[in-house]
Amino acid sequence: MIYSSRDKTEIDQLAVFGGKPLFAEALHVGRPNIGNRDEFDARVADILDRRWLTNDGQYVRELEQRIAELVGVKHCIAICNATVALEIAIRALGMSGEVIVPSFTFIATAHALQWQEITPVFCDIDPRTHTLDAGKVEKMITPRTTGIIGVHLWGNHCNIDALGEIAKRRGLKLLFDSAHAFGCSYRGRMIGGFGDAEVFSFHATKFLNSFEGGAVVTNNRELAERIGLMRNFGFTDYDKADFLGTNGKMNEVSAAMGLTNLDSMDDFVAVNRHNYNHYATKLAGLEGVTLLTYDEKEKCNYQYVVLEIDKTKTIVSRDQLMEILHKENVLARRYFYPGCHLMEPYRSHSPHAGMVLPETERLTNRVLCLPTGTGVNTSQIAQICQILRLVVENGLKIASRLGSTSSARLVEGATPGV
Ligand code: T4K
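Predict the joint structure of the above. Result:
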């Protein structure tokens, strides 16, 4: 192998042991994908000229139409972010009591329920896809259960057919948190058209961003109308509110960003895919480090590069590996540690929830997400992988030098959910 002068080949060169960090500037997971700036600037100028900034504006409508066409659904309602979109969809679907969700997800999935005093009942996941284990969902149903929320984590689809079958047979509503899955497919059909409704996120860190934003997509006209009204305080006319509503409106600048990025969507996928393949090549054969795979038969946005670290083989733990990368200025993230069930208020409500979540608890201690997207280049990826290789191939030496204090320090100082 040929090394450049900046490469690290000895463990003493690692920043964690006092070496100079590999990157002068931080490499982030979730650096936004940004499309054509001139196109965006022109749209913003148009918004200012027309003085129509929000409230069902022209760009919001165009974005909704283009998303509905792309996904192949009848209705798209743009919302200010996916958390509020989930809250509105949950309420519009009439969910109450208990709803079954994975714990291995961003806390927003659970919070959107709890915010309306609906209890999220955490169900375990399939360790292969990191999505709800349909076989276990049925066991979590009680007389209070009104729905299931599946999460297409990392863009990997849930077992949609099995969840649909359970929901139908048990008379439950089925919603998908598709925050990660814009541009992905299931059995050749785009994610977005399944269950009673699906929710996308267009947060800055997502595959397609509108700064902040989200959308509910559905084929149910009545539901779409209700969601559209709920997004705007429940107003059905001037001075007339027929529903309890909220302010879930997307503004015009966000829609302009969403439209601009939609135009570059194919380029974003190409970059992500290239990055993913590069990681796969560079990490091939590295014992104890497994790259999450995506279903090659489906469309995928490849927005997440997800590693599973098996400490029994790498000797250094996932948290030590993360600490080492952070010191090199590679801000890898342990999404979605420690699992919703171990964060408040859920931890206090159900202190023993973990007993039925063995796969979730195993995964939350293994997963590490690496930087990708248009903000990272091929040579940076090669350097990140070289560090990983150096560390794992010297796992025993490094783990003993780091000692047990590093992970303890890391966990103490960790940001919840990070
Ligand atoms: N459901 C699921 C499954 C989700 O993953 C999410 C959100 C939701 C629902 C709710 O969607 P929204 O209501 O947000 O639309 C980030 C995002 O804030 C969050 O949207 C996302 N999931 C989650 C997976 O990741 P944090 O706490 O990691 O954000 P933060 O600020 O640490 O940013 C992540 C990295 O991105 C940082 O290293 C910095 C970089 N970054 C971030 C922003 C905002 C940039 O480089 N530029 C930026 O503008 O949650």
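The first helix runs from residue 37 to 50.
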